[in-house]
Write a structure and sequence with these properties.
single chain; globular; alpha+beta; five-stranded mixed sheet
Length: 117
């Protein structure tokens, strides 16, 4: 199984987990010129932008550590585009979560980072 297939499999696993936790999945792999958001969902009143990271082992650090400041800014820009494209009201509460998979251990980090302009 190549890296892309492994990533798709892990994203599917995360979607199943989020659905079981009551998250409504709105989009997967939303692409824009600025980048991509893995999963966009709704958690009650929140519009949530999920970044999924997988690490087979800790040789390269943990999965959550892979979502650095540059990646966060890119996700925020794509989130802005998504909200504009879907005419989301300005006062829609948003959240940026990271779902980290380290081996088979899944960690859902709510409010992993805050919006950056």
């Amino acid at each position: 199984m190549n890296t892309r297939e492994k990533g798709a499999q892990k994203e599917q696993q995360v979607c199943a987990y989020l659905l079981s936790a009551g998250i409504e999945i709105l989009e997967r792999n939303f692409r824009a010129r600025q980048g991509e958001i893995d999963i966009i969902g709704r958690d009650r009143e929140y519009l949530v932008f999920f970044e999924v990271k997988y690490r087979e082992n800790d040789r390269s650090g943990s999965a959550a550590e892979a979502v650095g400041r540059a990646k966060q800014k890119k996700i925020c820009k794509v989130a802005d585009y998504y909200r504009m494209l879907h005419n989301c009201p300005e006062d829609t509460p948003i959240r940026f979560d990271v779902v980290a998979l380290d081996g088979e251990k899944l960690s859902w980090i709510k409010n992993a980072f805050y919006y950056m302009a």
